[in-house]
Amino acid sequence: MPTDAAHPQSTDELFHALQENHRRPYGRTRTVTAEELVDAAERFDEPVPLIHALLELQEAYTYGSDPRKSPVVFARLLTLFDERPDAFDERLRHQLFWRFKWVANALIALPEIPLTSLRQWLGEMRDRYEKAGLGLQPYYGQAYQLAAHVGEDTTLAYELWAARRRTPLSDCEACEIRERALHRADAGDDERALEIWAPVLAGKESCQEEPARSVSYALLPLVRTGRADRARELHLAGYRACRRNAGMAGEVGRHLEFCALTGNEGRGVELLAENRNLFDEVDSPLDLFHFLTGVEVLLSRVESLGHGELPVAGYAGRAWTVASLRAEVRERGDGLAARFDTRNGTTLHSGHRRERLDRAPLLDALELTLRSRGLDDLAEGASRTDAATGSGTAAAPTTPRTTEALPESVPELILRARELGELGHPDARACWARLRTLVAAPGYTHPDDPAVGPYVRLCADLLSDEANRAAERDEFAAAVELQEEAAGLYEDAGVPGDAALARACALLAAAEIPAETPSEGGQGKAMADALTEAHAGLVRLHEETPGLAPYIEGRLLRLRASALGLRLQASGDPEHVAPVLAEVERLEAFALRHSIDGQVSGAKLLRAGTYALSGDLPAAVTEADALRERLTEHGPAWHLPRVLGLRGRLRLGLRDASAAYADLTEGLRLAAAWPADAVDTGRLHGDLAEACMHLGRPDEALTQLTRAAEAELRAEKRTDAFCAYSNAAQLCLDLGRIEDCIALLDSLLTEPDVVAGKVDDRLVAQLRLVRARALHAGDDLKAATAEFVTLAAESAGWEDDPGSHAMIAAETAMLLAESGEFERAGEAVGRALAAHALAPRYEQLSNCLRELARLQAQQEGPDGLDGALAHLATAGRIADEARAAGFEPVGRSLDSALAYEHGRVNAYVGQYDDALAALEKALALVGEPGPETGSAGEWAECVRLAGLVEGVYLERPAAALTRLDAAVDRLAALGHTDEREQLASLTAQLRDEA
Q: Which pTM was predicted?
């Protein structure tokens, strides 16, 4: 795949292209480009550009899991060194000798390379090192690794390496720690291995490969030694560092094995799908051997649990099940082990492979992520006709009851379904589902029973049930079509009352379809107008249909009241309150007269909701209380969870979180007594999460949000589910649970319907935005910046939402500046400003420009002052615009924050007098703090920086101490302890240095 970078016209362009390619992730694109750049470098007939190009190519081969080509490239470098040693400066010479180890590792990974050739290469390495006067510790390190790979006694080899002093060409501390820890782990000493690994696992020692490699090896020792929670943390962070990376295929295999042995087989299958590229992209036989062994451990465990026919991702070109892929992987893995053992003259690889495959599970279940999915969930998702609608399940607080046994005979089942349907009983759904299966089966014969009625009526019943389900999922257009079809069949069956009810449901569903081109009043007015027309149509239909059964007439009255209630919800017009209440009175009177308890309850629920929408929350609570008492005495009992949910929401509105928590918890408890689709448990869990947040229980709120999302998935409300997951991810991020946040979002973003583009693109963008922020919070600046750049490009096309683009582009600019790419940051902030002009985002743009100024001054010093001041000048104009528009920021005053940043920027570049003057202005703008905490922190920070500039950089400690002492006393008197201690520390430091 040719690239523009592959055709540089000068050596400067070549070096620029090499730098650009070096920034790319390892993989085919980087490797192919590196190959093209070597061809380009050869045309210049200069050794130095060619040396640099060959070094880049060898790195691409080495870390792109292509060991066969790495030694070939190095041979060319070695020839160049022998012929033109003067072309290698000290840095290039260091690189050359460092990469002897790369070649040694590459040759070990190739079973076709004879053992004698491996030893000859180590001899070549030793000779070259001795001739160059270099220490031999790196050579002995390679000799030990060869002995460990072959399966020889490593005692002497280990001592010859580990006892020697490190040299500049030794592997980094992190890599050597890994080898020492593995030496102990292979001897069965998990505790000692983990003790050695500690600095790497804690992040104190790291490199390009570490801690990701060590994490993959340490997972099982951690579990075996009772540190399962630590293993969980490291799995989440370590897997993210190696996923889909051909150069770390072995590490991916060990993560799969970890899932298999800790009761997370479902997650293992998901991770296998995410890494399906490794089956075809890994060119290193040794990496492939380790990967396939981990895959087989997982597949063996899944098959042993009875899921051998579960579809899984495998080699391209065919569909795989667990059983068929396991057989394929076993054959290939055994073949690789045999090749290595034949080359090495031992049985080490076959033995290690068998040892891994024979391991028993270490734990029944270790919850790894917030979205734990079992094999049953995956099997259920795979069995659906549309693969993009698979969903998972989360632990629920209680187990829903099982529906009562259904009648065996078809006539009894039909009559039971209709009886329960008239009552609105939740068990009617199970009856209709069973009937749908029976009717669809080949050879179905409809009973010849007058009580049951004709086949066409049953078909209408099933269509109506399907329509009701579609409406519950907000699929209103489908509901309309199904109800209209059902109405026609009811007419054919001679039941005009049921036909009228179906047409009434269609009228209401049609009014709920969002308008494609809303009127001037927006979507709300368009919806209200449609519902007004629907209500009129419902009234006409009701009046024009004689001889209605009471239960049908009650439902028609309920639909009339619901139409007006929805209109009030859409419009918010106080004049729409009275008509709703009038319809509710009509419904309640009818239901009481005919003893239809379900409709009495429905009327009271609508009344309570109407009071709430009109702003009279106390009246709504009173009505909900009365309804709860009635339901307790008269039923229907399945309405109780919904009423408790409403009462909980009302309590939240009245700022009584404790009462809301009690109602919502009780609602969920009672909901468990009914089929899962009888109650909107997703809403209950979501409201309970809000109550938990008000009560200061964020971890419990997080649990409830994930339960809400999984309940919505089970109800096939995928948009609501993804919204709940988005809130859960954001809460994770707020709580500092970075890896949990990223793992949750990674799971969501690989859902089939997301990948297929079937989920709302703005919702997906929101998930990606939270993920990018989490990556940044997790110090993965490169990945975060790449995601932000992509999101900024996509959001530029959101003509209906320029404000969001302004926000995203502003955040993108800050990350680019943090990466030192100030030119690209300037371009991004320019786009943010253009969008801001259409939809002002004063605070976000001001924050962005001030941060860009700070970063440029901090990173570039005096050379960056002009650029930094230009950003601050733009921030000043935005502050002026905000003031003129009457904008009130959520955080700091834009003017005082700007003055503070002027002080900080000038301090970074050594303009200390200007810095102090700016800080004095900031202090004047903030004003003296009072007992409230609002401005105390900002004021104290301005005093701190002013004292530092004045006392240290301007060398006026006396004036600085006077300022600081007065501030410390004031803060102490006001009770601002934290701010006082910060200034007191600086005061003590200045006194010590005076």
A: 0.83
